[in-house]
Amino acid sequence: MNVGFIGLGIMGRPMAEHILRSGHRLTVFNRTPDKCAPLVAQGASPADSPAALASTCDIIITMLPDTPDVEAVLFGATGVWQELTPGKVIIDMSTISPAATINFANRLAEKNCEMLDAPVSGGQSGAQAATLTIMVGGKPEIFENCKPLFEAMGKNVFHLGPIGSGQKTKLVNQVICALNIVAMSEGLHLAKLAELDVQQAHKVVSSGAAGSWMLDNLAPRILQDDFKPGFMIKLQQKDLRLAHEFIKTIGADFPGTALTLSMFTKAVEQGLGEQGTQGFINLYRNSESEFRG
Amino acid sequence: MNVGFIGLGIMGRPMAEHILRSGHRLTVFNRTPDKCAPLVAQGASPADSPAALASTCDIIITMLPDTPDVEAVLFGATGVWQELTPGKVIIDMSTISPAATINFANRLAEKNCEMLDAPVSGGQSGAQAATLTIMVGGKPEIFENCKPLFEAMGKNVFHLGPIGSGQKTKLVNQVICALNIVAMSEGLHLAKLAELDVQQAHKVVSSGAAGSWMLDNLAPRILQDDFKPGFMIKLQQKDLRLAHEFIKTIGADFPGTALTLSMFTKAVEQGLGEQGTQGFINLYRNSESEFRG
Q: What is the pLDDT of residues B190-212, one digit of tens each?
């Protein structure tokens, strides 16, 4: 199977490497071309444009920051669409708008091409270890055909319903993650202000009903003032914006999600966007130092 | 050792039973006296008042709903204080104000009595299985003397610093729990409104970065519409009020905690107070049915 991979960022690069190692012929494209070099060194072919990539690949995977990036790569002047022939499959593994996803799938269907939405969870470490959770929406038979690719990149691969179901499930995931990050940040910062031994307080609360993946995996980084990204605050903010937009379209009221969006937006405005999500605690530390003069 | 136990509610009763079974002589008091009967049937002695209990006990444990309850039992007209003689130890395992705790300890010191604050986490099931997390503040030597009692009731017993440190750590715990409950509720309700298979969405998000004790332990009850308490919404609301008061006294700003307090208060006002904390999701379901007419 000729596989194309577009978007070799912090997540996309290790994911593409796993596809290459699982024995597929791989063609790669990235807007910043030098990001292709490590993959090419491992045997991938570089493409000059998404269109050029599409001309030689049966399955085209995209892993990009946001909805407009996916739209440009698929339907732009040098986009996949230009060289698309019937029977090809587009798998978008980015986290983007569920409504846009359904729209893209409909446009691709005009050329008799299928689409799966397959956003992931598990961050950079999950991408590197091929332990990602992959949330797939689309036709069951297309999912089955593509399953070996997913299993090369992830450990928990789920087919969740028709096109868009992967993105919707990812939004559920991100709403929970963001609130659990706020929980971790307020808890750890409160422990510090209360003059507790923060390390010990963390150990105590992690063992009980307050326990979470965030406390197990990101809190230790906070305790070491390590704010390198796994998953960047600005991307969490973007996902919350997508969730908020989706919630508005269904006419619901989610005060926790609304609050996390406003707080993550504030964190980005304060210049924390490139930190890992554990750096959200700096929003509290910064306002503290303002408060204390 | 003669141990007294005051407050035989949903948590206190199984905790007192574990003390009895570990071989201590136990005297019990409860404001509603018939709650003493099961303990008396197992060999405990009933007392007519906290004062009467204090006259025969070396160690006096309190497990009560809120700060004023502990104050009344310790310092009221028929309170512990009336019969207190030097060398006795009071262990308050309720969740109450850290500032009030320090105040109570100072007053008890006037009669040369020591106090530990030792709030717990783990809920009714933890109390029954003797697997509670116990967060203790007070003098190290007093903690060591009382450790066998804690180990009869809990699995994870921590000495966290001077008097009040247990309560402060508990507030950290409750701030995180409450936000994780909001996270779970918004996530599961969003899955429902998005017309996903909620059971499957729960399984997917639990396995990754959104994972939490709440998703593992309380979400399955939500999926079965089982809102029986483990830990009641009205008590979670009370703990959030304590946390909010404490945060105000240290001059900090915790928007997530402020939001959870207002939402749990709304849940109590809507009559959800006696449900387990998983019933918090009904706040969303109720507003949804209002919205949809």
A: 999 999 999 999 999 998 899 99
CATH number at residue A8: 3.40.50.720
- pLDDT tens digits, one per residue of A27-37: 999 999 999 99
Q: Does A165 touch chain B (CB under 8 A)?
A: yes
Q: Which residues in A lie closer than 8 A to residue B172 (C-beta atoms)?
A: 187-188, 190-191, 194, 196, 201, 205, 210
Count contacts between A and B (CB, < 8 Å). 238
Confidence of residue B292 (pLDDT cuts 50, 70, 90): very low
Task: Show which of residues 200-219 on chain B sit within 8 Å of chain A, judged by CB atoms.
Answer: 200-201, 203-205, 207-215, 217
Of B120, B138, B162, which residue sits at a domain end? B162
Q: What is the ipTM of this complex?
A: 0.93
B130 and B194, same structural domain? no
Q: How far is CA B59 from the centre of its chain?
A: 20
B256/A183 touch (CB, cutoff 8 Å), yes or no: yes
B168 is catalytic: no
Say which residues have a Cβ less than 8 Å from residue B115's Cβ, sequence separation at least 6: B89, B90, B91, B92, B101, B104, B105, B108, B109, B138, B163
Calpha distance B169→B174 (Å, rounded): 9
Do B263 and B175 lie in one domain? The reply is yes
As a whole number, mean pLDDT of residues B135-149 equals 98
From A162, A177, A206, the end of a domain falls on A162
Domains: count for chain B:
2
B172 and B158: one domain? no
Grade residue B289 by pLDDT with cuts at 50, 70 and 90: low
Task: State which amino acid sits at residue A225.
Answer: D
- A27 contacts: CB under 8 Å, gap ≥ 6: A2, A3, A4, A5, A44, A45, A46, A47, A53, A56, A57
Asked if residue A157 and residue A235 are part of one domain, the reply reads no
> What is the percentage of chain B residues whose pLDDT exceeds 70?
98
If you ran DSSP here, which 8-state letter would residue B34 be given?
A: G
Domain holding B25, by residue range, is 2-162
Q: What CATH number did the domain enclosing A174 receive?
A: 1.10.1040.10
- Establish if B115 touches chain A: CB-CB under 8 angstroms: no
Phi, psi of A8 (to 5 degrees): -110, 50
Model confidence over B39-69: pLDDT tens digits? 999 999 999 999 999 999 999 999 999 999 9
- Measured between CA atoms, the residue of chain A closest to residue B133 is A208
Q: Best of B157, B182, B285 to disrupt the A interface by mutation (most A CBs within 10 Å)?
A: B182
N-to-C CA span, chain B: 62
Residues A246, A111, single domain; the answer is no
pTM higher than the cut 0.80: yes
